[in-house]
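Possible race condition, two jobs.
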Amino acid sequence: MRFVSTRGGDSAGFHDAVMRGLARDGGLFVPEALPDLRPFLAGWVALPYAELATRFLRLFATDIPLEELRACAERAYAAFPVPDDPAPLITLNGAGRPFPIHVLELFHGPTLAFKDFALRFLGQLYGRAVREGGHAVNILGATSGDTGSAAIHGMLDQPGTHCFILYPEGRIAPLQERQIACTGSAAVHALAVRGAFDDAQAIVKEILGDAAFSAAHSLTAVNSINIARILAQCVYYLRAALRLHGPEAGAAPLEFVVPTGNFGNVLAGWLLSKMGLCALRFRVATNANDVVARFFNTGRYLPGAVHASLAPSMDIQQASNFERWLWYRFDGDAARVRGTLDTLRRTGSFAFGEAPGGGVTAASFSDAAILGAIREIHGRTGYLADPHTACGLAAALDAPSASGVVPRVVLATAHPAKFPESALAATGLAPAHPTLEALASRPVVKQVLPATTGAVRRAIEEALGGSAAA
């Protein structure tokens, strides 16, 4: 299968699209055509997770031998406590309110966040490239909290690889920072920039857009601008739909409620609705940084200032994956995508003229509402949620009652132990996890940099000695 740029000026096979991350014209890679999954659903219902991932990804990764793709998937999900079921689907029941609600727990991986699903797999793809090509692959990414640690963990066992992870200084949870900056590995470079996540993300895109610099330092992207990230995340949506509806998953209504900041997670699920699972609906849940929610409610995309919140992984105003969504909503019209992005650059906003719909609704929640959702859900069901998942639970409870006849699945994106302060404030409980407790005694090793492309470029050059082989 070929992958094309959302801006119309580049194309590549799967392997090259993954290794480059960003298209040469600055756009994001998307599959040239999406497959119809309905003929496969009956045969996929009972598959173990790694095999389901293999069968699904094989439709896109046509330039990787099947057994090598299968080996990548099996190694990726072997790191989960229950490899055959790394994303358990549980049901919450409680008195009153629109229960039951299903919760898809995506935090059982090594770093206790949903990013492990895609980044464990992406790490295996990079490791394969190192073995096949005999040269380094150096990872560059920006994180609002969880991407960085998941990328690092996915790459630590891959030889010849450095990880450069940018994050906003003082704007991620302390335990999230420790997962990035306490690895003890000389190949991991924690770069704390004095700014917001959007600044870090813009720096990453600018550096990756410099083809000469990226090639000289063997840089590639781990952010959700990398198409492998999105496709790998499609699998847990597919697995949940098959669990609830079996072979009828293509036609049975189902609503996913997705906490989101950079729009990559919800985009992965939404793509399945373009692959034959046409009855899927999506409800976007954001914190006070509600640019995505406002767009789906009003049709106007207007980024503003980033505000620190209890759900820091969603403290984002520039949602990268929105560009992919635009490409699909414009029926692959790259010129229209370029025009819309140009309008956004020139004026700071763009408008559809009406709420865009397309099977997506949205809601946003303040810090007080997040704590209220944690408290209510725990009180009614005994379930303790992290603040990001709490946004999703609040959005599920807040949804119009007419959609109560449709099963709802809230994506639980992080373990509550990563954000113990919120749980303590809401319930009086302070959750813990042994992998996080082990970080407490380790020193934080990071570079604090100005939020400029030049500063980050210099840090990369110094770490690699000016060459990719360093």
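Job #2 (started ~2 s after job #1):
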Amino acid sequence: MSRVPPTPAWHPDRLAARLPFLRRRARLTAATRAFFTGRGYLEVETPYAVPAPGEEVHLHPFATRRRHPDGRDERLWLHTSPEFAMKRLLAGGAGPIFQLARVWRNGEASATHAPEFTMLEWYAPAAGMDALIAETTALLRAVLPPVVTCRGVTTDLSQIECLTVAEAFRRHAGADLLGTAGDAAALAASAGARLRAGEDWEDLFFRLLLERVEPRIGHDHPTFLTHWPAAQAALARRDPADPRVAERFELFVCGMELANAFVELTDAGEQRARFAEDRRRRAALYPGDPVMDWPLDEDFLAALAHGMPDCAGIALGFDRLAMIAAGADRIGQVLWLPPADLA
């Protein structure tokens, strides 16, 4: 029996079903731009095809090539975040900046993930974590109604919850996270979990986070999950009061992870050492995979060495924000032309 192909996303019937969500997305985009320009931010645009897409160990980029006029062939990748480029601009003196950037992460597709999506990223010079949490809260309240419902979860924006990762693990996993740092067996025993074959401390940390912590936060009110173990915040500054943790937070609204933020690391030497460790781990996980092998971003490290100002920065999944604004159940509903498997 032949299979009937799905109706394409551009078909009038399919587009008509998405138009209410897409119109809400358009209003959200305008309101977001107004929020940042009203606060003195400058909107920037940075290249999408870059010589180094980032250093996140587990993110899979899309590879491409540039043919130069002289015939030279250059390997490039579609960036997984505009972070490195925007930090170069900060080092150059651009001041407070924001960007609505298209980004690409291969292998990601679900009701809340798309392989190509929009990232809202902004950087606030001289800001710390508390100031960035306050500004992010102000953004939510400026562009969303006071109470939002998405994927069956209703969240009231009138209050926020700030919860450290260590406290979240105590509360929801019954585990002493920092007291067992680096010791997978001790963390498993503390959490009453069975350690799987080949599972190290980081693997277990993320399993407990996904299975026990994340499903319980960001429901009644937005939750800012703060002060991550230093090993899980490669681009963030360590907390001067407790070097075991870094000044990082993630934001959860309607039960979904919405944003990831750092008080940015500005020490070029420490950043180089962290990159070296990330590259070692990536090479061990994906040996011989040319798509996962790119040059160290020396230009970014040079920008840090030149002097990036103290600042805090945040990356927010704009498609998920649009889902929350429109009450959508699937990310494909807020994309103009979603891939067939997300439509």
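The chain has a mean pLDDT of 95.
Logs attached separately.
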